[in-house]
Predict the 3D structure of the following.
Amino acid sequence: MNRLAEFIRSLFTDIRTNAAKRNRAVLFVVYVLAAFIILVIGAYRIAFSPYESRKLYFYDSGTGKTASERQQVLRDTNSLARIKRAVEAIRNGPVRPQLMRLVPYEANVKNIFVTKEGMLIIDFDENFFLHIEDGRAVLTIESILRTVFANFGFIREVRIVVNEHPIGTLDGVVNLSRAFTREDLHKQPFRKK
């Protein structure tokens, strides 16, 4: 810090008599102002952007597992709308070519609720279970859970229902009769037992 202060002080001493120092001082001021303007514009664009960055999970064809991808999702002040937009974004699919959509494109999020206890209930229409790809039920649920838990820290559990009714299993593999927690992602007990 002392070296920087000395450099700045040296720029402005004898500035009236030394043209080279005057030129360096002017360039220094111009660079500082340009850096400040760039920072202000960047902060303004981030603060007032209609989009926010979300971590979304999709199927990675290279690894056979879920993988994350950052996408810009429309910003909203309502937390339920933000969650719905994140779930719809994983339904819409990834940008990177090696990633694949898991939530069926035909599936619509009818409604989203959050209980006082922090349980998120996602209500899909019947297309959710009608269009699930064979063998991808576990990864589909994992995609939803990872996306929700990565982006919304206040959610403690996630429950998936169809047309406001709980369903037993998805594709005969995933037990959807209960809610899922963050711990379920590590041990994957949501597989049918």
